[in-house]
């Protein structure tokens, strides 16, 4: 009877944390897999973006109003780089000083939060929210928004990866809006 109990009880107690100095290979594997999944999910891009675009002419150039409140130093250069890759010329102007020859004006707001990245002891900022507004003739003709996933899976994703889906939806939806018959004031709304 004692040998039967030993056969069933000893394997069950190996997986228990308790005060044991020996860690089970299974428990170690589970911990490592959990850490890997957590790290990968923190780098995954958020698909929770949305855009609203009204029918308008194709965008070829925009003037970007500089927002001095944004502390993400790589955001504005990345915005211009991605616009250029979409064949949209851009130039930046100071708030309230829009040039008269701007066909469209883009305003942006970027919020950052602080947290400690995985495997680090130092807190660092990350972009938690992005809001883009495109105006034509004083009217908002397109908006796009990004917000960190509720579980913060993508908070450490790079600025280019957070910004690209917004611009793609903003300007891809522009093509879809142009294909809609009549209804100039009818928006095209995309959400993931």
Summarize the structure.
The chain is an alpha/beta fold and 192 residues long. It has four helices and seven strands, in the order H-H-E-E-H-E-E-E-E-H-E.
Using only C-alpha atoms, the radius of gyration works out to 25 Å
Strands of the largest sheet, in order across it?
3-2-4-5-6-1-7
**Which spans have pLDDT < 50 for at least 5 consecutive residues?**
175-186
Count of individual beta strands: 7
Task: Please summarize the sheet with the most strands.
Answer: 7 strands, mixed
Q: Estimate the mean pLDDT confidence.
A: 77
Helix content: 25-40%
Number of helices: 4
Detailed description of the structure:
Helix 3 (75-85) links the parallel strand 2 and strand 3 (89-93). The chain is α/β, with parallel strands linked by helices and 192 residues long. The chain is elongated. Helix 3 (75-85) crosses helix 4. The model is unreliable at 175-186 (pLDDT under 50). A 7-stranded mixed beta sheet has the order 3-2-4-5-6-1-7, with helices on one face. The termini are far apart. The chain has 4 helices and 7 strands. Helix content is 33%, strand content 28%.
């Amino acid at each position: 009877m004692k040998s039967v109990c030993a056969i069933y009880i000893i394997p069950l107690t190996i997986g228990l944390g308790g005060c044991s100095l020996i860690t089970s290979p299974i428990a170690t594997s589970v911990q490592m897999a959990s850490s890997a999944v957590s790290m990968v999910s923190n780098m995954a891009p958020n698909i929770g973006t949305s855009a609203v675009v009204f029918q308008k002419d194709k965008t070829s150039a925009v003037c970007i109003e500089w927002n001095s409140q944004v502390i993400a130093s790589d955001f504005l250069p990345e915005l211009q780089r991605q616009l250029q890759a979409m064949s949209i010329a851009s130039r930046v102007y100071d708030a309230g000083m829009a040039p008269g020859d701007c066909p469209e004006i883009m305003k942006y707001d970027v919020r950052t939060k602080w947290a400690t990245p995985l495997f680090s002891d130092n807190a660092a900022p990350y972009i938690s929210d992005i809001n883009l507004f495109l105006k034509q003739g004083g009217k908002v003709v397109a908006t796009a928004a990004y917000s960190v996933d509720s579980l913060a899976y993508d908070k450490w994703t790079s600025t280019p990866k957070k910004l690209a889906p917004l611009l793609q939806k903003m300007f891809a939806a522009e093509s879809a809006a142009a294909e809609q018959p009549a209804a100039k004031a009818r928006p095209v709304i995309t959400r993931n």
